[in-house]
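Annex B. Sample input.
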Amino acid sequence: VINFLRVLSLCHSVVPEHIAGELHYLATSPDEEALVNAAKQLDIVFQSARNHTLKISVLGETEEYTLLNVLDFTSTRKRMSVIIRTSNGDIKLLCKGADSVIYDRLVSNDPLVSVTEQHLD
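Annex B, continued. Sample output.
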């Protein structure tokens, strides 16, 4: 669950804004704002994005990532992806999008595919 919330906190186009000591988010999409706020409510907080550095707080511990690339959501792709570098140097692709688009890209012999299919039904 923590990794899922990390994805919500890192894969978006939301801009954090600190107003009078409180963290607020500006977003062009109400869905994106809702997802980032949901993660925040569960203590996975998107804090800042400056000079390709993304900073989040995970259960009170700060984590930093380098943003390498953004693949924006489009009506054709029906998903958004970001490529990040973790603090230990690993490079990861994080993706979120429409269930049907993501599901089609799962490895068919993965045991989680059938569980995911049950949740989609």
